[in-house]
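dumping this here so i dont lose it
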């Protein structure tokens, strides 16, 4: 009997000692306004029952877990034989995708150093702007804008394995000035990002101790490789139907996505959403909670009567 007690104490100690702190604790789940006739919770519409948009509270009030999300190897979709570079050398094997992100370089001069453009990729971007709109017809939309500055790490193998070297950036203009490989790579990469409309301000430099100090980058250095930094402003989000499944839970049915649920708490001009039952918010990996405020718009007055409109972002919130 005593042995069982000791084991129970040890198991409890192990459970307590190994427990990981919750990075994104659940927010309120009080439900919404109540129907005077039935006493049941109502969806988070406007004060008059019309369409209502909710935006992030001042200070970007969302919580996202910092996850490692490996990039997908887009070459493997319907491809049975990997193509080769212009020199006949095969592209890096799929196992190297996490390192090279599809980048293939070559010995050519100018921008032709980039034989195949890499995939711009980031793991857990912060939400800079977000809004959720509920309509009385049972449809919703969520606009989620990820912002931030991120870094691509190209090891020396990815940059130089196929013959890339220092060379004139434009041989016709200045044939006698050799530009480092990373700065040469920066030119086509910057054009790739701008073309996508989401990635911009791309810069590339050799992965040295000095660069780590200037950029505040952690991890091992690789002087033969390149670090490329870029800014992100990328907007996406689901559209579909919603319904209350009980007094404090909303279910969302996106057109082409998996159903998700959130608990919610609407109090005055504030709305708190938390992914229910361990689900991510709007099926966005790592996204757990939103702390929202009632947006200012025609047909949906603020209960407080005090509206602060940000013309630069074309959105407002109630105070």
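and the seq i came up w/
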């Amino acid at each position: 009997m005593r042995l069982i007690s000791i084991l129970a104490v040890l198991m409890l100690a192990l459970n307590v000692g190994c427990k990981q702190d919750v990075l994104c604790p659940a927010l309120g789940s009080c439900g919404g306004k109540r129907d005077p006739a039935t006493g049941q919770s109502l969806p988070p519409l406007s004060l008059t029952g019309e369409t209502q948009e909710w935006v992030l509270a001042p200070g970007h009030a969302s919580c996202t877990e910092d996850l490692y999300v490996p990039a997908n190897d887009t070459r493997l979709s319907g491809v049975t034989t990997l193509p080769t570079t212009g020199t006949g050398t095969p592209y890096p094997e799929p196992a190297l995708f996490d390192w090279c992100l599809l980048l293939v370089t070559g010995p050519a001069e100018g921008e032709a150093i980039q034989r195949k453009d890499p995939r711009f990729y980031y793991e857990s971007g912060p939400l800079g702007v977000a809004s959720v709109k509920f309509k009385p017809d049972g449809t919703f939309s969520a606009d989620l804008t990820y912002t931030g500055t991120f870094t691509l790490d190209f090891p020396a193998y990815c940059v130089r394995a196929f013959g890339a070297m220092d060379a004139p950036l434009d041989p016709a203009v200045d044939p006698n000035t050799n530009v480092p490989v990373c700065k040469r790579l920066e030119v086509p990469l910057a054009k790739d990002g701008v073309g996508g409309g989401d990635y911009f301000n791309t810069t590339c430099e050799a992965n040295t101790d000095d660069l780590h100090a200037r950029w505040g980058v952690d991890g091992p250095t690789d002087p033969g490789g390149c670090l490329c930094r870029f800014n992100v402003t990328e907007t996406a989000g689901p559209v579909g139907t919603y319904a209350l499944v009980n007094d404090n839970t909303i279910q969302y049915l996106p057109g082409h996505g998996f159903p998700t649920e959130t608990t919610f708490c609407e109090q005055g001009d504030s709305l708190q959403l938390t992914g229910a039952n361990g689900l991510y918010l709007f099926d966005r990996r790592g996204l757990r909670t939103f702390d929202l405020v009632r947006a200012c718009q025609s047909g949906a007055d603020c209960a407080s009567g005090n509206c602060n409109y940000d013309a630069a972002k074309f959105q407002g919130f109630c105070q």
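DSSP finds five helices and 15 strands in the chain.
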